[in-house]
Protein 1
Amino acid sequence: MNMKSIKLIKKDILAASVFVFFGLLLILLLIPRGVVEPGNVELAILSPSYYPKIVSYILILIGLGIFIKNFRIGFFEEAERIEKKYLFRMLIVFITILAIVFFLPMLGIPLTSGIALLFLLMFGGERRPVVVFLVSTLVPLLVYLFFTKVAQITIPNGMLESLL
Amino acid sequence: MIENIISGFFLFATIDSFVALGIGVFIGVIVGAIPGLTTPMAVALTLPFTFTLPPVTGILLLLGVYKGGIYGGSITAILINTPGTPAASCTVLDGYPMAKKGEAKRALDMALYSSCVADFISNISLILFAGILAGFALKFGPAEVFTLIFFSLTIISGVSGSQLLKGMASACLGLLLATVGMDLIYGTNRFVFGQTNLLAGLNFIPVLIGLFAIPEILNFFCKKEIKLKKNPLAGVGATLKDFLKCFKTIIKGSFIGVILGAIPGIGAAPSAFLSYSEARRTSKNPENFGKGEIEGVAAAEAGNNGVAGATMIPLLALGIPGDIITAIILGAFMIHGLRPGPLMFTQNIELIYAIFMGIMLSSIYLFAIGKASIKFISKITDIPHRILFPIVLVLCIFGSYAVNNSAFDISIMFLMGLLGFGMLQLNIPSAPFLIAFILGPMLEDSFRQSLLISGGSYSIFFSTPICWFFWILTVIIISMAAWAYAKSKGKTFYENNNK
């Protein structure tokens, strides 16, 4: 294991920071910008922003509570050690997800699924070409046929529109 | 009365009714087991086939789909961590950990047994107590619903384990996410930011799939293959001993389902969570819940299926559809020139008896079809993860799209998946997030409706004995959770100091 790649994260503190940051973001930015207040609100407690505000304040309080708890008890949970190799794999999987979302409108669901399946099967460690080929072609096709012919749901075919 | 029962029997006892009910249950189990295909969707798609059928046969076909669908949701929840229905998300909590331990067949068996028992109890309650329960259900106004849902949220303390504060924060995030979309009282937008796809809010299914299935897939690809531990129970189904151990839990969960099912608009998800919470509270091994406790699966499924017959109570007794499915079934009644309600019990009583007989038979069908399917379905866990997880991903993509025919939902699913993965890395429990997301809209709507009725006075939440009942229960549960949490933290602190 490469010691340089070992990263210790104090999970509780990090989680608490996320909660406090997100709570503040909601109170200061997202609620004022994202919640449209009607002009005729008679009671403040009935306004559309009242409930999200309450929950956001609670979120901040819980975040602060986690900070206090950790400082009071004086120990941190030790995070799992993430190896560089797995960080690299994580990155590849994230890129695959982004690629699926990006190419889906163009290629359609069956083709995108087939390509993603082909890649992920090999990336996951499947080395038998017949299995890779059969699974990556038959599974999307069968699922596609089930959804379109049995459940009568229109599935976008993208560039395969004329074929399917 | 005897004459009416005999007439009802002849109305029901046709080959068509027997076949239709069986087909309905079979379709329901299949549809429920496919993420993205919801039970209301299946019932709606089956509705046109009932137009040409006799009324009893047509209605039994729909009821079969409904009952099969509720059970079917648990299959994928247990096997691949992907609940087919929102209510089955509670089954995930212990069902999937059991499958990971190699006890998928045992979990599936227990889910089936508790589903059938709960379904049977629910049907009996429908037949015997329709009038009483319908009257009780009508006492639930927005304030009572708010206290009930608030009480249901106490389950968060149970599913958070040792991470109580993080679990509560996770629930807050779920509540906030549930507010996205158009505000129902004023019709203004919340957190939409010009994105029209968000106007109707976030759909349950992509969020469920994203939060449970995607992190598991990401975890597999980012780490190494999870080796299943050698387990003597691998491949073994649930035994009579298991069933007897869970029997009390199943009965309690069934009655929770019956009571909540009779209240229009509540649905199966709160019932499943409440039943689970109650089972955990009274269990001898509460610490095992969430780690693959068979009693947890039994409780969730009993609560979930206990509503199946009970949702018919307000429909048949009062003509009020309690959820989308019963609204579709109401449509089927009306297509055949029937109007459910008190008058139906005097004008078409033989038809009511015929439906009751069919409903009772549906429990037997559910058992037979479920048992036959488990034999084959449980083999899914034998597929190597390197093949299974990519296939699950494809199912997730199709399933998320199918809910609203929207590619936007696929993006939401992946986004939720990344959120779930992040939560996993930071040891933030995702179950409270999901529970709050499912119960959140009901909580907020009933909260604001109550305040609208009372002119802003909070006293409405303490105005009836039902409200007080749920407040007292909430205080008891929270106090017990706080006590247990303080005790466990105190123990850890003591142990660390001694080191």
Note: Confidence is low (pLDDT under 50) at residues 1-9, 75-79 of chain A.
Protein 2
Amino acid sequence: MDSRYVIGIDLGTTNCALAYADTAAMGDDPAMPPVSVLGIAQLVHPGEVRAEPLLPSALLLPGPADFPAGSLELPWDGADGQVIGRLAQRRGAELAGKLVSSAKSWLCHAGVDRTAPILPWSAAPGVNRLSPVEASRRYLEYLRQAWDHAMPETPFASQQVLVTVPASFDAVARDLTQRAAEQAGYRQVTLLEEPQAAFYAWIERHPGWREQVAVSDLILVVDIGGGTTDFTLIAVTERAGELALERVAVGDHILLGGDNMDLALARLVESELAQTGRKLDAVQLQSLWYNCRVAKEKLLDPESGADEEPVTILGRGSGLVGGVIKAKLKRADAVRVLLDGFFPEVSSQEEPRRARRAALQEIGLPYAADPAVTRHLAQFLRQQASQAEHGAVRRGASGLATPTHVLFNGGVLHAPLVRERLMAVLNSWLAAEGAAPARLLAGEDLMHAVARGAAYYGLARRGKGVRIRGGVPRTYYVGIESSLPAVPGLPNPLKALTVAPFGMEEGTQARVPGPEFGLTVGEPAEFRFFSSASRKNDEIGALIEEVGEEIQELSPIEVTLPASEGGGPMTPVTLETVVTETGVLQLWCVARDGRRWKLEFNVRERIA
Amino acid sequence: MEFAILTDEISSRSAALAPAAGELSWRSFLGRLVLAIKSFWAIVLTGALPDEVVQRLGLARRGQAKAAPAAAQAGPAEGALQMLGILQRDARLIDFLMEDIAAYSDDQVGAAVRSVHQQCREALNRYVQLAPVIDGVEGTFTKLAGVELAAVKLVGNVPPQPPPGGVLRHRGWRGVKVDLPPLGAKASLSVVAPAEIEIE
């Protein structure tokens, strides 16, 4: 039976949100029930619990001396030894080495074992580290407990739940998110891509959306969150005389977000202060970071005529006025750092730079080498240039995809100057392609759009709203080493066998035509695993002779076949691909007699 | 049943289960023994701990929402200290008021005040709801009819009998609602702001 509520969870890099739709409030009215945002009860100060619309994705592992006894009580049981939310974020600034943050960015970092306890990355002595999966599990569990506390009559575990992930999350990161949700006690969980969720939120807010778009329109969703930037293209098509929506492209994973931008501004002010001999400690830096964000928002408002905003940091000791540090954020500097640094005016032919910029690096995480969002966008639109059969999109003279509409999501895009710059750059490319300027779709409540949209999508899955067709957002391959004689010093040439074509739909499965693999029973068999966001034409079973730059390696997948009585030491198997109803990609080995074994991601393996 | 009456009597005499430090109390031992016997029989007979035992041991029943921690009874002094603590924590108001600012330039004081003012305001708005006593325009004639006289200060040429009205000079403030968080441990309440020690 369908649950009463549909819950949408935005598991963000810096903030989580929870929205829900009440199907009981729907009645006979064909209109969608309103989607509400849940206030999430959390500690905001020691001993003070308050419901707030966002849960900061911050997890503090306090020691016995960090808080007064009894001041970390929550209205429910089972959260000992940790603090999650606003208090963790606040106190974490003072307790470096005990705070887990940006767990989500680590979840898709193939360079580390994501199930190993590695966070906090630079942990204080005596802190029991958590794995990125475990940290995500704890956020998800916390949200479940907050719901059960607020809605005791309708337990979370029996509601339909949707959890959003970046569109650029690969199959491994999605699998880990799904695993974290299951370990957190989620029973009916479905994954949804964040840009799609943002678009659903727009549809939810605009019941007359069909008037605003037409067949063959192409909608670009730009989602700049706290830690990641995500691009998605949605095509408007026609099905049985009705407008239909199809997600036709997603971008690569770009580890770059609003936090990097605010930090860049704070670093600028900090370096100016350093020139006058003022040094800031960790707490003052945190306050500088926060004040720069506020000053930035004021300066980037076109209504404001101010050329500079004061940034004040109060003295640290009890000498508040005496120790006050005054700085100014100049409008020209904010524009230079933000617009020219992160959104420069570039041509559509420019490639993202590869050289690493030290300023953006935090130890451990592989931040995007080039902070220019516009260059990443140009690359994304150009990737669609190939004559794609699947995911065909409208293109201009040079083959660049030419969106007709743009939807923004994420806190950074609150700033009107940023929106204007992005639109101006995009429209200059469109003009060069001979296409009309794109129109901006008005998004609202950019902080909660993803959670709201996820709840809407849950209803859409019940047939109560329009649903974006999408399927697998990338093409997936397994590596096959060619059987040429080995050349000393060179690895064997690698070929890639297509196992999941772009757009393979949820709820379908297919046998991979092609070779049988002989697997040794009782021993783990490992396959190298690859994906591509730009190769959309490879059919299932197609063998790619040359693995180029457009194909990226993911964590390997492995399976161990149990020894069976009477069977030989080798079992010939073929591969089968399954995309579950909940959007998870699975690969299975199928023996001739029909026995099946699921291949699991091996995230312990390190990829250089 | 007889047994239950007996134990009630004994446990009420040993009200404090945790004796004061240094006092080796046979009574406290007796109290614990009684509690243990009581629990034993209750579990044998009914399969659950009696409410009294649950409460006394500070336990919460599984599957049952935890009761909100009982708020300590706040007297006026505690409330005042708590409010000061909040204004210090969120806005550093006490630091500001206790500092000798005579030596600093207006510019310097101004920069600090903007920050303190904004955060004080936010804290005040969050925990205390304030409204004007008379919601009128200052400088205009205001009728006194229907106004609670105790909340009004008459100034100037005041006649022996309350007049029909006068010029509103100050709208006044009234606390409509105070929404302070429950008090924590009593000992910490006198601490308006903790001292900070950094471990390097």
Note: Residues 132-150 of chain A form the longest helix (19 residues).
Protein 3
Amino acid sequence: MSTEPTPVHCLHGQGSRPECILCGRCLPACPLFAATGREELSPRAKFFLARAVAEGRADLSKKAADLLATMCLSCGKCENACPLGLCGPDLVAELRAAHPGFAGFLWKLWIEQAGVMWPLARTVARLLPDGIPIEAVNRARDAIAAMGSGEAPAPWLYPERFDPAQAGKKAVLFAGCVAEHANPAWKEAARRLLAGLGVEVLPDPGFTCCGCTLGHAGAPDAQAAMQQQNIEAWRRAGRPLLVVFCATCRCGLRAYARKDLGLTMDELDPWRKNLVSLAELMGRTAFRIGEAAPAKVRYHRPCHGAGGNQDLDFLRRAMGGRLYFNEDETPCCGFGGLTKLTSPELSEAVARNALAVYAPKPGEQLVTGCSGCVTQLRSAAPAGVRVAHWLELLG
Amino acid sequence: MTSAPLLSQAARRFLEKCFPGDAAVFTPEETFVYGTDASRRHAPPAAVVRPDSAGQIKDLLAFAQAERIPILPRGRGTNTVGGCVPVAGGIVVSTARLNRILEIDPDDFVAVVEPGVVTGDLQKALAPHRLFFAPDPASVKFSTVGGNAATCAGGMRAVKYGVTRDHILGIDAVIPGGEVVVAGGRTHKNVVGLDLTRLLVGSEGTLGLFARLTLKLLPLPAATATLALAYPSVDAALAAAGDVFRAGVLPVAMELLGREAMKAVAMISAVPWPAEAGAALFLRVDGSPEAVAADARLLTAATAGAGPVWSRAAATPEEEEALWELRRLLNPASFKAAPDKISDDVTVPRGRLRQAAAAIAAIGEELRVRILVFGHIGDGNLHVNIMHDAADQGERSRALTARERILMLCLKLRGTLSGEHGVGLSKLPFFDRQIDPVQRELMRRVKAAFDPAGIMNPQKAY
């Protein structure tokens, strides 16, 4: 089936976009604005400037392009705040896709600043903008590996009695870029849990990155190729449970069902239903709290929770009263989108702001369920505060 | 890019020194958004600065006075009358980095805040102390205390508690030249001298730049309850509103949505009322749990006479919030109803509301324009949105005629052009019809006393 690739965030960008009414509701939602007080970075400012550019009232100067296309965390919080459902990341991705030079510019940056996570697969290298040598792809993968597992806390959560509800089911594990290349231990921990639940884990059918980041980057061809490779792999495995443990991967994969990527009508429902978070599968599994447990653990909610928050429910059951979460304090970590690549100082400012909001005391831990958030918060955390994917806490 | 009036090299150097790093912005792309606000008008500023201390504001206003450069205070740019649009160029002063709550004193019942604090954030910080700040504009979650004070924002609780002006005890305002006016104080009453605090509130950025505000706090009522009703017509809903007052209840909020307004909300949200309803009335009471329960019974009885076609009572915060969010969605929803709107917030004496609403509906019918009517009817405050397509010359012209006739109608009923949005740019052409020459001259002299060179938010308000 032929498809017309379009960048994907939450896919509200399809069809005509209502005009921003400049009401200002997106400002408190935007992590870039919250961390910097720079209104020019807000979604309202981007929609206003983009419209002026589109109508020829403003040039797409280098400065305008920087503001519009490089400074967005793709967190999607603005979309939830906007009464018209306008999505800043969609706007940014469209602008990037409309300017082919942009993706090349990003790759050049990436090569110069190795060390930033980037989803990669040799299979899509041919779809990347011209002039990107294959060696760059290898170097990128090496760089992800070099991020390593960092300073993970010692385990303190021990499964004692697994919920039998999932026993006998078959599943494939979608580990995502970070677990595949930087933290293979997460994948192993997930396998152990699934085995404990009695779920049969099938061999990796050949998944690649979910494609989310390439969509944000304005590389829709490469993104669509990745998405189709993942769908094919799932089919080959017999359309089993598709288990994820990264909120952003889950968000990216869920969006497949809302876009014409070749999933048949019969497959749409199984895709949605079988795409499950590992936390959700844990069900009523009972845990013992080990001696290494801190007095307080703060839950960091990933922006790409997309209606899920299954991690939070699960962690509350597993950790009890030591887990702390305030619905009014849900800062973005600053990892998302390409800002870490294009404006690292902004990304760091957002991370600092998140840690200032949480204000963890030495000895406390921060736990989350998104690979990007773990990577980012871990690099910014003050001494004595450990940051973990919840899988790392399992002994 | 529309070019902004340029600053001199010396002025730019001063700003760069006074506002180091990213605290001063000059490129037209970066300053672009600072040229607009929720009025959707635009004019380019020459520069934007983001002070994070009162000292910087003093230096800036001394410099701007000497150089005769316009100064435009800006909170979150959520006002709808063009109050933040730099029609004469100049320097926009964003309060985004002046956003600290400096003090909450549960014994004095005051809070001291910087102007850039979001009002909703302040409410959240006060709640654990069992205190609240009464002003509650629809933009409470995304507008600032400083902006609310500059416009003397109203909101839904004004019927019982009054407007922003009634809850500001003191303001430290920097005036052109850099002097600081420390107006008012932290007592809940104060009659010494002219009341400069109340003069500064609602001055729309034309007298000085607020550096900090001392706010009056009230004990947070232990309970609230909401009753939402739908009636066949606006007139029936307004009759019910009158019955509520006659029953001896002073609600904390009393809101009306006319038929067209209800339809607009239904376009962006699920709505609970029946499709045939012609008006909705939202009522809320607050107080002790016992008083609220008793008032809620009175409300139900008092509103029955006018013949509601639907009603829903809510007594938990979640249920109440779900109803009130429908009301707050009205402003964004109205943009779905037609490509363009002219928005006014006329206010008439409470007893003239039914007359005003009927006359507005007749104007809409005669001129063939859709008019959304909603608002804080407990205050006699009607939000009137004239929906039209500005690309259609005939329709635009009919909409403008309708607007003028509605404004004049309200003045004839001894009302006012604006209850809470302010004058800004959008009501300025009609200002003289309400304010007589004697008052105009006095206002001019007051302005000159604060701002002799006329640099504060020029060409606005009065």
Note: Residues 220-236 of chain A form the longest helix (17 residues).
